[in-house]
Amino acid sequence: MSxxxxxxxxxxxxxxxxxxxxxxxxxxxxxxxTRILRCALLLSSAVVAVQSAQAxxxxxxxxxxxGGIEDIVVTARxxxxxxxxxxxxxxxxxxxxxxxxxxxxxxxxxxxxxxxSISTGSAGGSGFANISIRGSATLNPGTAxxxxxxxxxxxxxxxxxxxxxxxxxxxxxxxxxxxPQGTLFGRNTTGGALNIITRDPTGDFEGEVRGRIxxxxxxxxxxxxxxxxxxxxxxxxxxxxxxxxxGYARNSFTGQDVNDRNSQYVRGKIKWAPAxxxxxxxxxxxxxxxxxxxxxxxxxxxxPTANPAIGAINALFPLSAYLHxxxxxxxxxxxxxxxxxxxxxxYSGRNNGYDRLTASxxxxxxxxxxxxxxxxxxxxxxxxxxxxxxxxxxxxIQILAAESYYGSKQWSQELQFSGDLTDRLxxxxxxxxxxxxxxxxxxxxxFGVLQPPTSTNxxxxxxxxxxxxxxxxxxxxxxxDITDRLxxxxxxxxxxxxxxxxxxxxxxxxxxxxAAELVSQPDFQPPxxxxxxxxxxxxxxxxxxxxxxxxxVFAYIKTSGAAKxxxxxxxxxxVNTPAFDPEKVKDIELGLKLESDxxxxxxxxxxxxxxxxxxxxxxxxxxxxxTTQYLLNAGDQDVYGAEFELxxxxxxxxxxxxxxxxxxxxxxxxxxxxxxxIAGGTGADCVPNPANPAAPLCIxxxxxxxxxxxxxxxxxxxxxxxxxxGFGELALHANYSYVSSQWFDTTTADPRESAATIxxxxxxxxxxxxxxxxxxxxxxxxxxxxxxxxVYAFAKNITGKKYTTRSFSNLYSxxxxxxxxxxxxxxxxxxxxxxx
Length: 836
Prior knowledge:
Elements: H1 3-20, H2 27-57, E1 73-74, E2 81-82, E3 89-94, H3 95-100, E4 116-120, E5 129-133, E6 136-137, E7 149-153, E8 156-158, E9 171-178, H4 182-185, E10 192-198, E11 206-214, E12 218-230, E13 234-245, E14 249-251, E15 257-258, E16 261-272, E17 280-292, E18 297-302, H5 308-316, E19 331-332, E20 354-370, E21 373-391, E22 400-420, E23 425-446, E24 461-481, E25 486-505, H6 511-514, E26 529-550, E27 553-564, E28 583-595, E29 601-613, E30 616-623, E31 626-633, E32 636-648, E33 654-667, E34 673-677, E35 686-687, E36 697-701, E37 713-725, E38 728-739, E39 742-743, H7 755-767, E40 769-770, E41 773-784, E42 789-796, E43 804-808, E44 817-822, E45 827-835
Parallel strand pairs: 7-10, 14-19
Antiparallel strand pairs: 1-2, 3-9, 4-5, 5-6, 7-8, 9-10, 11-12, 11-45, 12-13, 13-16, 14-15, 16-17, 17-20, 18-44, 20-21, 21-22, 22-23, 23-24, 24-25, 25-26, 26-27, 27-28, 28-29, 29-32, 30-31, 32-33, 33-37, 34-36, 35-36, 37-38, 38-41, 39-40, 41-42, 42-45, 43-44
């Protein structure tokens, strides 16, 4: 049976499974929706009651007191607007909030916004940030598939999640946009977008010098210099940052630190804004290099009966001695990569783990007016290269080691035009084009101790691919004021994607032809290559109404749609699978934004329901006799929830802020299926397996599994107290963030499988869950008026919580091991900042 015949049979069988399960189980879903709706209505009622009471006491703006919450300007709709009158669920963090929350990379944003989950740790390297918003998650950080949440830096789309943990220095504002943002922000915004805005040069000569030291050998130094070259018309801003610290954990086998960090970051901006012109030109460039000695991975569990090699290893070296437990939380024992071979020659000879990430880019932004039309052009180039090497089982016996690299070069161009057609009708429209060339390779080795390299067999499987991604989009959005208080928004975008790959693979592409060429042609030239191209086009849209009841009450309802781009699988054993299609989402959202008349209380509430179709999920299958895991359009899921944000100034100098989210989700019955070889399997959904006649290929329904990286509950609370002093001020800040348990790897057991297999898969599913955890951070600072000097002390994870950030268990039933990535321990330090 050919691959394409298998694909046709699979689709027919899946349709049968869907029909067999067309009766949905409503009770759990209704209970979840009811719980979320009750919480939303209770909080809304409480805030409205407070709002009404305050409005009765103070009816005019003149009665507003000083010291209220400042207005926040956001660009969630590609134009500057007040946060409280923007019909989008968005969290905005200014420079002061970023400093107090100690946000130095994207991972720390999880503790600032509701519904945002960011996990760290990846077999591909330490620099990956796996971002999920409202159930749209990134599960596979490849070059030929895209993240589910888009990241923008000064209006430039960052294509690769390998750049997710780059440094965030000298920020003006960070916006977390929740819900589909496809009309104005393009593809890959099914869950939302991170909009990062750095500071522009100004007409003032100013700067700062900063430094920090702390435990684990932390050393940090940086400087910012703003120079007016021609007054306010031409100015330059340069930022530099250096960070170095020891690892949070110790490898007891090699004696080496792991999970350390060494980074250097530099960014420069030049802005020209002639006083006698409506035009401005901004040229920007940045460079970030990060390296470490490997990730912190611990052995979560093992199964001696899953694999004969695991059983033999456990008999000689009991693996229970290396299980990751509370008593040995910050210890690992990885042997690392023993074959002394890497994909990059310059790193050859390094047997210990390492990670290297280089991310850089530049942009030219031109803004101005042509008559009554505002024009903005963003021309940009982004480069990234990430390579990581490490063992993934946490034992001195090399069970599984992997090295991967990902490279990307992307040119992009965006044009925006905006303005007013009438007093009540305004618009924005434009186009976007990007051209990305990339490459990736994965190198894996199992049981390397038992399989030393030979002249003809290095003991590894390699997969190398070149990638070409092109995307073109046109968009437009209208804003119409129906009345002075009621407005309508409508927008549409259309995107055309071309995804091409050329794969060079030893084990999957015509093995009989390539076998004789393994030694003579190490670069795997044709005919040992496979080139493929896929094209997709899809819309994004939005429509909504917003109502400004008065200066303090703003409500909106909107519906939106967006898509996550399709692509190719490049993993070993899966390169012959067909392209996966775009993942699509549509939602409905109700929002309420409230502010007390004295501006000492502000509350924002959003309730949403999203329908996601063709979701891209990891699944297993037998392809050309190889068992592999790859991305496919796994089916449909519903995600729903409520998000709350509250800021209060109870007295002068004190700011209390908090946000929370309640979320739930499930797959629609029968929509998520995979093909699995089942020994002795029978039924209408099974066909013969050419590779193993004793184990027919059967359809397994996985629709009952948990939606990955969707915490049901998140709570973030912060308090900031400022005391004026005769010579300056004293500031105290504390924030607590809690995220409930999350699922990462689950695999449904089929009743036709053996009792041992069912038991192994049941345990595997339990291991795919990480426990919820709460983290307490704090910062104390004293700022002098003359000179402008700040001295501070900081601490993270003050309670010393032992937690994990990600779990990988889907090899437990086959290879026999499950492992996890470990979160940061209690850290502290002191620092100073001198401004001039």
